Each structure stands twice: as C-alpha cells, then as structure tokens.
Amino acid sequence: MPSTDPKVLEDLRDAFAGESQANRKYLAYAKKAEQEKMPYAAKIFRAAAEAETIHAHTHFRNMGGVKDTKSNLEDAINGETYEFTKMYPAMLEDAKAANDSLAVTGFHMANEAEKVHGALFQKALANPAQEPPKIFVCKVCGHVAEGEAPEICPICGAKRQVYLEIQ
Predict the structure, then answer these.
(1) Are the C-beta atoms of 121 and 139 separated by less than 8 Å?
(2) Is the pLDDT score of 3 beyond 90?
(3) Phi, psi of 133 (to 5 degrees)
(4) pTM: predicted TM-score of the whole model, two decimal places
(5) What's 61-121 look like in SS3?
(6) Going from the N-terminus, what domains does the chain have, and what CATH number goes with each?
(7) pLDDT confidence of 1, banded at 50, 70, 90?
(8) Euclidean distance between CA atoms 118 and 77, whole angstroms
(9) Residue 90, phi then psi, degrees to nearest 5
(10) How far apart are CA 117 and CA 155, in angstroms?
C-alpha cells in the first residue's frame, strides 16, 4: 500500500527524481566512455544506471505513482500536454532571450517531439490493447514514428539510419 505520510511522500518524490536523474546521467556518461574507447567504465555506468532505475521504480510504486493503464495513459497525456503547451514554450523564450542557440535547438526539438508523444498516448488510450505497429525513435531529437522510420526526421532532419526500432 502506498505511503500516506506527507513527509514520506515528499521524500519518495525527491528520491524518485534523484534516482531518475542519476539513471539518465549515467547513461550519458556510458555513451561518452564508449566514444572514448573505455568499455569498463561504460559498462559500470550502464550497470549503475540500471540499478538507479530499480530504485526509482521502487520509490514511484511506494508513492502510488503506478496505477491502471488507463490512468497511466491519462497521466502521460497530461504530462506531455503540459510540456508542449507550457514548460517548453517558456523555456524556449528564456533561451531565446539569452541568445543560447544550443538550448533553443534542444528545447525546440523536445517540444515538437512531446506533441507527437501526446498524440500517440491519446491513440493508445483509445485502444490500449490493439496490436502495436513497428515503432521507431529518432536518436537525435526523440521523434517517434509508427510503421516505419521516415526517410528524414520531420523534427530535426536526421536520416532514417538514426532511428532505433523499439522492441
């Protein structure tokens, strides 16, 4: 049964956020270690990232974050919609005001990808048990494509070869 104590819930949210960020950070470190031909370091980073995922999932469950699939899809839709309607537009404005072209590009690509994610979650909510098509993710910007990867990513312009098929 999920915790109901306000302080414990706050701690679980903080732990979930910290473990989630550590997972992503360690996976980025692993990629860099691979590029630098340091396989042992890369493997240790990947192992630690997996362990952080285990911790994050435990904390998320303990705070009652995992519900039935319909509720989870609705939560995902709400999160993605917030990101592309409020969060990223505000961040884009900040980056533009600061003349930070790297941040502008990153926020723009993420914002456009979140719109696609939201639409796909809506589609899944309408028929969550349907037979899934092939699904591909652009490794540059996070665009998700169903059926087949496009020749050119509609968000970042990357070629089909950068798409990863999701199993």
Answers:
(1) no
(2) no
(3) -80, 175
(4) 0.90
(5) HHCCCCCCHHHHHHHHHHHHHHHHHHHHHHHHHHHHHCCCHHHHHHHHHHHHHHHHHHHHH
(6) 6-62 (1.20.1260.10), 67-128 (1.20.1260.10), 131-167 (2.20.28)
(7) confident
(8) 5
(9) -65, -40
(10) 13
Angstrom CA distances, 148 to 60, 65, 136, 141, 157, stand at: 33, 32, 7, 17, 16
Strands (E), 10-73: none
Structure confidence by residue, pLDDT tens digits, 103-142:
999 999 999 999 999 999 999 999 999 999 999 999 999 9
Phi-psi region of 150 (alpha: psi -120 to 50; beta: other; left: phi over 0): beta
In degrees and rounded to multiples of 5, residue 132 shows phi and psi of: -75, 145
140 closest CA partner among 118, 120, 162: 162
The pLDDT tens digits of the residues spanning 43-95 come to 999 999 999 999 999 999 999 999 999 999 999 999 999 999 999 999 999 99
Integer Cα distance of 118 and 97 in angstroms:
27
Give 106-138 as a 3 state SS string: HHHHHHHHHHHHHHHHHHHHHCCCCCCCCEEEE
The span from the CA of 24 to the CA of 165, in Å, is 20
